[in-house]
Amino acid sequence: MDIKQIQDLIRFVSKSGVNEVSIEQQDFKITIKTDHQSPVLYQATVPVQAVEAAPVAAAPVAPVAAAAPVADTSHYVTIKSPMIGTFYRSASPEKPLFVNVGDEIKPGSVLCIIEAMKLFNEIEAEISGRIVKILVDNASPVEYDQPLFLVEPV
Hints:
- By secondary structure, this protein is mainly β.
- The chain has 2 domains: 3-45, no CATH class; 77-153, CATH 2.40.50.100.
- It has one helix spanning 3-16; strands at 20-24, 29-34, 39-45, 77-80, 85-88, 104-105, 110-116, 119-124, 129-134, 140-142, 147-153.
- The chain has a 4-stranded antiparallel beta sheet, with no helix packed on it. A 4-stranded antiparallel beta sheet has the order 8-7-5-10, with no helix packed on it.
- A hairpin with a 4-residue loop joins strand 1 (20-24) and strand 2 (29-34).
- The model is unreliable at 38-42 (pLDDT under 50).
């Protein structure tokens, strides 16, 4: 892995919202961790030559408004992200939203799309119920296992 590839990887990590990326090859291991403010080169070991990564300015993170707590959420089911990527509520900006608060869903209903590495993955419901709350803003980065929706099962 050359310096250009490392710099590209650092830029990708800072833009994607991913917390940590690790790559391990035969003689090379690199882990990049970020605190969503600026990426930090955590560990890089190259037996042949030392590699220095230039600092990269992170994209500004939009402040997230504090959500009002939902009364007793213990009977709600949380639908979580099955992957890291970018969350979209519709197939394109011109298309209608897949679901809104109050919509009834059933197994197989498309809830959202998560884009991961230029692949658009439809996320489908696995339960029947009613959408109580959408926990992620449109076009926001999401982590693996991050809560996306609260559903009241029926």
